[in-house]
Specification:
Elements: H1 2-27, H2 49-147, H3 150-157, H4 162-269, E1 287-290, E2 293-296, E3 303-306, E4 309-312, E5 318-320, E6 325-332, E7 338-345, E8 348-358, E9 365-366, E10 371-375, E11 385-392, E12 395-397
Antiparallel strand pairs: 1-4, 2-3, 4-11, 5-10, 6-7, 6-9, 7-8, 8-10, 8-11, 11-12
Length: 404
């Protein structure tokens, strides 16, 4: 049983903390109309509306300074992003150029491969020719070797006359010269063959080196491009965050401007008119559910100051102006939900919160007992009721002391 109670207490505490955080976020815009919303004393940290106005002005000035600082930062980041963009474009251009060279090198390699095939065929033809000539020469040498050198002399001596002898001698000389030419041609062909082979090997090696060099440059360029893209993304991210921060500060400054104007208007309204001559009428036909002062908050579960009274009534019940006056504020105010403030003169104002519907407009004059809205449960509410406050010069008072 004890464990169960402790578990419930822990769960309740966690829920209470979550409610508090959400309440602070949602109720922040309404603080200027509800000076006691963030404190337990009835006035925001002991401030009057005059003091709160001064604080809002200071906050607005600080926000404006921050906006200027963020704008400078945004400008600096924008310049850096543009600079990196230039580097990135240059890197991309360089990479494109290298890729083009790599493509050219590969194309040259393809052409070289075709040339090599042709040269290899040429080499084969030369080698076949060399083999053929070598066979002819070998055959002749073998014939001479078999018949001996005397055969040549016998051939010459068989000539019947001198003219035939000379003719045969010339023929033999031509044959000898032809053999010498064949030997020289074979030698030249072999030399050319070796040179072609060497040229092919050199060409292959150069093409391979060139392709490897370009491929290495492409790899380096791709790495550099990746580094630049990483820097660009980082700078662009910082620029986006700075712009978001700037827009947030601008929105905050605008809210503070509106808040300043509204507080000023409320303070100005407190300077005119006379205080009501009689007590306020009850704004709604309902029973008193929670009084003015410290209490255990029904949602948060801890002790805090309640700046008005809660009057329980069904949703849609008519709400009446407690006295004649001017509507100086209407709208949705965080934890108070839809709310109305009526100024009655002489610094007296009444506040109506958690409405389901607002039936009047700012600047409108209302009479005592005139319907201004309907009961609801908007904002931080545990059920349909009217939260009613009486304020004198902005400070919350016990409404029961001013009701009939």
């Amino acid at each position: 049983m004890i464990r169960f109670l402790n578990s419930k207490k822990t769960t309740f505490t966690v829920k209470a903390i979550i409610y508090i955080l959400v309440f602070i976020l949602l109720l922040a815009p309404a603080v200027f109309l509800n000076p006691n919303a963030g404190s337990s004393t009835g006035v925001l940290y002991g401030q009057s509306l005059d003091e709160e106005l001064e604080q809002v002005k200071k906050d607005r000035e600080e926000t404006q300074k921050k906006i200027e600082e963020v704008k400078k930062q945004e400008s600096a980041y924008l310049s850096e992003v543009k600079e990196v963009e230039t580097d990135l474009l240059s890197s991309l251009s360089q990479l494109d150029g290298l890729n083009d060279k790599l493509s050219e090198a590969k194309s040259d390699m393809d052409k070289t491969t075709v040339d090599l095939v042709l040269k290899e065929q040429e080499l084969k033809d030369i080698e076949d020719e060399l083999n053929e000539k070598a066979e002819i020469l070998n055959s002749r040498v073998a014939t001479i070797y078999k018949n001996g050198d005397g055969n040549i002399l016998q051939i010459l001596l068989k000539a019947e006359d001198f003219l035939e002898f000379v003719s045969r001698f010339k023929l033999m000389s031509l044959i000898a010269q032809k053999d010498a030419d064949i030997i020289k041609e074979i030698k030249d062909k072999k030399t050319a063959n070796l040179n072609i082979k060497k040229g092919i090997l050199d060409l292959r090696e150069k093409q391979k080196q060139r392709q490897e060099e370009i491929a290495q440059l492409v790899t380096q360029a791709e790495k550099k491009q990746g580094e630049i893209e990483e820097i660009y993304n980082e700078k662009n991210s910082l620029l986006s965050k700075t712009r978001a921060s700037k827009n947030s500060l601008i929105a905050m400054e605008k809210d503070l401007e509106i808040k300043e104007a509204q507080i000023t208007r409320i303070l100005e309204s407190y300077k005119y008119g006379n205080a009501p001559g009689s007590k306020f009428m009850w704004p709604v036909a309902g029973r008193l559910r929670s009084g003015f002062g410290y209490r255990i908050h029904p949602i948060f579960g801890y002790r805090r100051f309640h700046s008005g009274i809660d009057l329980a009534a069904p949703s849609g019940t008519l709400i009446y102006s407690a006295d004649g006056g001017e509507i100086i504020h209407t709208g949705y105010d965080g934890g108070y939900g839809y709310s109305i403030m009526v100024y009655h003169g002489g610094g007296f104002a009444t506040w109506y919160a958690h409405l389901s519907r607002i039936l009047v407009n700012v600047g409108q004059r209302v009479e005592r007992g005139e319907v201004i809205g309907l009961v609801g449960s908007t904002g931080w509410s545990t059920g349909p009721h009217l939260h009613f406050e009486v304020r004198i010069n902005g400070a919350a008072q016990d409404p029961l002391a001013y009701l009939q």
